[in-house]
Design brief:
Elements: H1 3-14, H2 16-20, H3 22-42, E1 47-55, H4 73-84, H5 87-99, H6 114-119, H7 121-125, H8 140-150, E2 151-155, E3 161-168, H9 171-229, H10 236-271, H11 275-286, H12 290-315, H13 324-349, H14 360-396, H15 401-435, E4 441-445, H16 458-483, H17 490-494, E5 500-505, H18 509-512, H19 522-530, H20 534-537, H21 542-557, E6 564-570, H22 577-590, E7 595-599, H23 607-611, H24 620-624, H25 630-633, E8 635-636, E9 642-645, H26 654-658, H27 661-673, E10 676-680, H28 689-694, E11 699-705, H29 711-723, E12 728-736, H30 744-758
Parallel strand pairs: 5-12, 6-10, 6-11, 7-9, 7-10, 11-12
Antiparallel strand pairs: 1-3, 1-4, 2-3, 8-9
């Protein structure tokens, strides 16, 4: 076998299970496709609509009072997603849908047919199990629960784009739900932030009016003092001291103003919590871990150092806004503050604080914690500035009374003027931010009715069904092949080292008749075998040609066919050995070979009924029992050159007779008078008769029935034959499917038809 033939053979072995179990594999594939088509036919479509929002840090959370950004971008998205998924917002959406012009048609509100009401989209998609509800409108809580099961928020780790998705049984309803969801979220955010913005603006407005009044009074007192005392200005040294004190006092009062703003903001946020939530937030503020304690101590120390360094810069007349070291301290302080907040958040998420991380109170708590952090920073700065300011005030005591009074009035005017300008800037900035308070949310895309259903996806489902159908078909074929323990074709026998000398195709019921092999009577067995004697009845059929091939194979096995005795046997009963023996004997006889067919199956003989039409009283048992000479019991059949040795009467000692020396002598004598002697023996495994006979003959032909003879029986049969050193000529595969002959069957059927037509 060359390389190309070997590769072809290997490829054939790979696809051999498909050849053997192809019908079952095709049925499996068709079943998968059929079930998929049925599913796609009965499945109700589910449509998904989506919209996109951009959530960014807007002007609302700018640094009006040097507040930290209470919504860090990474936490901002998470907090807004929690709000979007909250039950309160879901109820608001349902309320809006109830007031919309589509209310009477929305399934989510209980409209539509009873099945749509009770089944629910969540059940169809396997999202949520829901007990069937009676027909009619759903309650607000039920509709809100349905909304939460039919919606989803998708966001990426490194993006500020949030996608809102909703599913419904109709495409337009899915779009209506998403757009109502967006409107409810925008209004919720507007309402949530309105109070904070107004509170900040009102605080600035109040402080601005107060500072304007203080500035006017300070300027009036300074003018009156100068007129009364006739003093125009201070000397240069006093002027410098006043300038330094005014700078410190300006920063000091600015810090006090920032601190008051933080206090106002904290009071506003805490007012939004109920009593239990306020207790929980205060509890979180008091909770601590070793890491939190270390960070808080490090923060307090850094705050004090920063305030002292800032005081030195102000005292030296340097610009604090451009100082690199001060900026580095601010960066370090911001980093520590962020770590404190992160550690506190971990504490909350661990459950120690008793707060649900996805609740609204958790979002407020984060803002409160960050503002309290800023509050501590302002307190440290204010206390340090107060000490410096007290020191400079002490130095003012050495100045004469008139100069000291003028210096105080000059200082008040400068401080109030600077604070007024600062508050005016922040007030205008707050008004601008109030106008742009919704900039945090921007609608990128509104929802539109989807063009096709998200479930089921027919094309994809059919494609996957085809793919898995093929996998299951292959799995079925290879699984069956793995579990198969019977002989199917020549390859199975090659594994045992047995050469196949011929294959006999199956005979249709029409040709065979309807007698089953399971019938046990001798007459019925003979009738069944007779229906298989196609070599006699149809000399040019494909089955007849199959036996001619077997005859030729035996010829080529040993050219010295003279005086040859062949045993035809099988592993078990009903595998076709008697049929094979009879047809093979007829084939040899038709060739002109003087043939003796011996029925050595003394337990279930059948050949006398097959060829003689009646049970023979005399036969092999009479010869072996010394009653008759073997020539006296041999009968001539209707087939020329074919002679039959019937089994004779049934005996109890069949094994002893077949194992006797008389049997061995009979075979030896028969070789001399016949061109070939064919012995039809009992099966190998049930009894020992065939094993003993195998040692008396020149060769053994093993008959194997396709898809019925088990491999383990073949293995055991070979062990028995090898134990007596029997010569195995080969095996005959009985019951092969004619279609597996790759044109052999159709070729000989055509050949036979041509001969019949020519007769």
């Amino acid at each position: 076998m060359n390389e190309k033939q070997r590769q072809t053979a290997d490829l054939g072995e790979v696809f051999r299970p498909l050849k053997i179990h192809g019908k079952g594999a095709i049925i499996t594939f068709i079943a998968v496709i059929t079930l998929t088509v049925i599913f796609l036919t009965v499945a109700k479509p589910v449509y998904q609509a989506s919209a996109s929002l951009s959530i960014q840090e807007g002007d609302l959370h700018g640094q009006i009072f040097d507040f930290p950004n209470v919504f860090f971008q990474k936490n901002l998205i998470k907090n807004q997603v929690a709000i979007l998924q909250s039950h309160s917002l879901a109820l608001d959406v349902i309320h809006r849908l109830q007031e919309s012009p589509y209310a009477d048609s929305l399934v989510i509100l209980g409209a539509g047919n009873d099945q749509e009401k009770t089944e629910g989209i969540g059940n169809r998609l396997g999202i949520r199990k829901k007990e069937k509800q009676p027909s009619g409108p759903l309650t607000l809580q039920e509709a809100g629960a349905d909304f939460q099961s039919q919606t989803k928020v998708i966001y990426g780790r490194d993006t500020d784009i949030v996608e809102l998705r909703a599913v419904a049984s109709r495409p337009w309803e899915a779009a209506v739900i998403v757009n109502a969801w967006i409107q409810a979220y925008q209004d919720y955010h507007r309402s949530d932030t309105q109070g904070q913005v107004n509170k900040t603006r009102m605080f600035l407005e109040e402080k601005l009016m107060e500072m304007e009044h203080q500035l006017a009074e300070a300027e009036a007192r300074l003018t009156n003092f100068k007129k009364f005392h006739g003093v125009v200005s201070l000397n240069s040294e006093t002027e410098q001291l006043v300038q330094r004190i005014s700078e410190f006092e300006t920063v000091y009062k600015q810090t006090k103003t920032d601190l008051e703003a933080v206090d106002t903001q904290l009071a506003f946020l805490k007012a939004q919590l109920d009593e239990n939530q306020r207790s929980l937030v205060e509890n979180v503020s008091r909770l601590s871990t070793p890491e939190l304690s270390r960070l808080r101590n490090e923060r307090a120390e850094l705050m004090n150092r920063r305030a002292a360094f800032e005081s030195q810069l102000i005292g030296a007349g340097l610009d604090t806004r451009q100082n690199v070291k001060l900026k580095e301290m601010d960066d370090r302080l911001n980093g520590i503050n962020q770590r404190v907040i992160e550690e506190t958040r971990k504490l909350v998420n661990s459950g120690m604080a008793g707060i649900n991380p996805l609740s609204r109170s958790e979002t407020l708590m984060e803002q409160i914690l960050e503002l309290e952090t800023l509050q501590k920073s302002h307190l440290a700065r204010r206390n340090e500035l107060r000490l410096v300011l007290a020191e400079y005030t002490q130095r003012m005591e050495s100045i004469p009374d008139k100069d000291r009074e003028l210096a105080k009035l000059e200082r008040d005017v400068q401080v109030n003027n600077k604070l007024y300008i600062m508050l005016r800037e922040k007030y205008e900035e707050a008004r601008i931010r109030e106008a742009g308070q919704m900039n945090i949310i921007r609608v990128v895309d509104l929802a539109a009715p989807p063009g096709e259903a998200m479930f089921p996806k027919k094309k994809l489902t059919l494609l996957l069904a085809g793919f898995f159908g093929v996998l299951l078909a292959f799995g079925y074929a290879y699984g069956q092949e793995y579990l198969r323990d019977t002989v199917y074709d020549e390859s199975d026998l090659f594994q045992f080292g047995i050469r196949v000398i011929g294959t006999v195709p199956t005979v249709s019921e029409k040709k065979r008749g309807k007698t089953k092999r399971s019938e046990k009577s001798k007459v019925n067995r003979a009738r069944d075998i007779f229906s298989h004697l196609l070599t006699h009845r149809q000399g040019y059929s494909s089955i007849a040609e199959a036996y001619r091939v077997i005859r030729t194979s035996i010829y080529f096995t040993n050219n010295k066919l003279k005086n040859r005795a062949i045993l035809i046997t099988s592993a078990g009963a009903s595998e076709g050995k008697s049929t094979t023996s009879a047809n093979l004997a007829i084939t040899f006889a038709n060739k002109g070979v003087r043939t003796l067919l011996v029925d050595s199956d003394l337990r279930r003989p059948v050949l006398d009924m097959l060829f003689l039409g009646t049970q023979s009283k005399n036969g092999l048992t009479h010869h072996l029992g010394h009653a008759l000479h073997w020539k006296e019991v041999i009968r001539e059949t209707s087939v020329k050159n074919l002679f039959l040795m019937p089994a004779g009467a049934l005996v109890k000692n069949a094994s002893e007779l077949l194992c006797s020396r008389e049997m061995q002598l009979f075979i030896h004598e028969a070789r001399k008078h016949f061109g070939i002697v064919i012995l039809d023996s009992p099966p190998l495994l049930p009894v020992t008769d065939a094993t003993v006979l195998a040692s008396f003959v020149d060769g053994v032909v093993l008959v194997v029935r396709v898809n019925e003879t088990k491999k383990q029986f073949i293995r055991r049969s070979l062990e028995l034959l090898n134990s007596v050193d029997a010569t195995i000529l080969g095996a005959v595969l009985n019951g092969m499917d004619p279609k597996s002959y790759y044109g052999y069957h159709s070729y000989y059927m055509t050949y036979s038809d041509e001969i019949e037509a020519g007769k």
